[in-house]
Structure formats: structure tokens, C-alpha cells
User: Which sequence fits this backbone?
């Protein structure tokens, strides 16, 4: 619990037996009530390692970052959901800070921005690709985001009630931001800087393929070609904190 809020951490995991121990090395389990590791057809010991650390392991056989996230987010029971890759890159020690900002300043959705951390171990192609996608989000949707591909988000679970998340792939990350940050009347959103660390284990990103797919996805989303997807939470769930009682 953190300031009377139940906290769920959700991580998509595809062959992360080396990344998970790093996440748990400094994860504060006094803050996080529930850890959900979504095992996405891993061929290594991901499920076993996650279980050993006490995570709730859920299997998702549809391959993909978005498919894994959808299953994990549906299963989460916290009032606030925190997400990150299961590779040790995102700072676990920022969780209480981000929760403070969310709770004390009244935000509903925070996405984390890695771009200010100039020392980050990222190659130029990734940085360039991210910038291109940020630029097209600006052109197509008229709002600025500094790190459209970031995978660390902190948000109140009820936010999911208002989002149509269609992507099963890597575009899930940008789609979540587009959906949450464009609903200004309902969702108070913010983007905050974090630092970023070297990955443990092998990256699953296929830079060119995922980059072009994510760009194409933005156009399809903009021109309404993706339809809509049902929300990942049940609005009638009695445990779902809504604004006002949150
Ligand atoms: N790319 C990809 N990542 C997946 C999949 N299923 C789960 N993941 C997880 O999604 C997270 C992001 O992938 P990662 O390889 O770290 O991408 P990167 O951060 O861009 O290098 C990791 O925790 C992966 O284990 C999948 O099918 N594809
Ligand atoms: Mg990663």
C-alpha cells in the first residue's frame, strides 16, 4: 500500500530470466502489493524465476507486447497500476516519487520520459526512431510527447475505463499515451523525466520493423481505421476506485 492506495506492478515478460532478478533487486515490496508477470511464450525460465520472487504469473499465448499488457492490465486489482519492462532498465526507486506526484498533485496518468538522461545506453537509431514517432504524433494528433515509446507508466486503474486499446504489438505504448493524454477533460495526464539503465538480457525490439509498424499504426489510428476495443476494466467492478472516491 502507498498512502492508502493498493499498488499493482504489471510487467510483460518474453524471455526475461536475466532481467527479472534485476527488477527485484531493488523493488520495494512494502509499496507494491501485487506484481503481475505476464509470460508471453517464453522459452527460458521466466515463469519459474518470476514465481520464485513471488510474482503472480499469468500466461498469454498471443505473442506481442500489447497482447501481454492487455492480459496483465485486465488481471490487475490495484487502485494504481505501475508498469515497466522486465529487463531492469526502468528505475524501481522512482516508483514512490511518481506515486507522490500522482497522489499529491492529483494526476491520473503519468508516462515517463527517458530522453533527458543523456548518458543512457541507447543507440542513435532508437533515439532517432523515437523522435520521428514523437514528431508524427505532434503532426497527426496535435499534442507533444517527448518519449512516445516509453514503457513506464503510472495510472489510476479507472483510467482504463476510458481507453480503446487496439494494438497487440509494440504500438501499444504509443496508443496508450494517445488515448490517455488526449482525453484532457476526463484524465489529468503528465509526462515526467526518469533515468534509464542498461538492459539485462536481450532486447526484443526489432528496430526497423517495429519502428515502421508503429509509424503506420499512427496513421491508421488517426484516420479511424483501427476501430475501437472494449475497455480493459469493468466499469461496474465494485473495487474500481473512481474519481471522487480515489
Ligand atoms: N517485443 C516484445 N516484447 C515483449 C513481448 N512479450 C513481452 N515482451 C516484453 O516487453 C518488454 C519490452 O521489450 P524490450 O525487449 O525490453 O524492448 P526495448 O525496451 O525496446 O528494448 C520486455 O519486458 C519484454 O520481455 C513480445 O512479444 N514482443
Ligand atoms: Mg526494455
Assistant:
Amino acid at each position: 500500500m502507498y498512502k492508502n492506495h493498493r499498488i499493482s506492478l504489471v510487467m510483460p515478460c518474453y524471455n526475461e530470466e536475466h532481467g527479472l532478478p534485476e527488477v527485484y533487486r531493488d523493488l520495494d515490496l512494502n509499496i507494491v502489493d501485487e506484481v503481475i508477470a505476464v509470460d508471453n511464450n517464453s522459452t527460458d525460465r521466466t515463469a519459474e524465476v518470476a514465481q520464485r520472487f513471488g510474482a503472480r504469473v499469468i500466461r498469454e499465448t498471443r505473442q506481442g507486447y500489447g497482447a501481454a499488457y492487455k492480459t496483465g492490465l485486465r488481471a490487475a486489482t490495484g487502485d494504481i497500476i505501475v508498469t515497466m519492462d522486465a529487463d531492469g532498465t526502468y528505475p524501481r526507486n522512482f516508483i514512490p516519487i511518481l506515486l507522490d506526484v500522482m497522489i499529491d498533485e492529483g494526476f491520473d496518468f503519468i508516462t515517463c520520459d527517458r530522453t533527458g538522461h543523456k548518458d543512457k545506453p541507447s543507440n542513435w537509431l532508437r533515439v532517432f526512431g523515437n523522435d520521428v514517432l514523437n514528431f508524427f504524433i505532434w503532426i497527426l494528433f496535435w499534442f507533444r510527447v517527448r518519449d512516445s515509446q516509453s514503457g513506464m507508466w503510472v495510472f489510476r486503474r479507472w483510467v482504463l475505463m476510458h481507453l480503446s486499446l487496439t494494438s497487440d504489438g509494440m504500438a501499444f505504448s504509443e496508443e496508450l499515451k494517445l488515448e490517455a493524454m488526449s482525453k484532457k477533460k476526463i484524465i489529468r495526464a503528465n509526462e515526467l523525466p526518469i533515468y534509464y539503465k542498461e538492459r539485462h538480457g536481450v532486447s526484443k525490439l526489432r528496430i526497423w520493423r517495429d519502428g515502421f509498424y508503429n509509424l503506420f499504426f499512427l496513421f491508421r489510428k488517426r484516420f479511424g481505421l483501427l476501430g475501437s476495443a472494449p475497455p480493459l476494466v469493468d466499469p461496474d467492478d465494485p473495487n474500481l476506485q473512481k474519481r471522487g472516491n480515489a
Remarks:
- The helical segments are 19-25, 46-52, 65-75, 95-105, 124-141, 172-181, 207-222.
- The chain is about 35% helix and 15% strand.
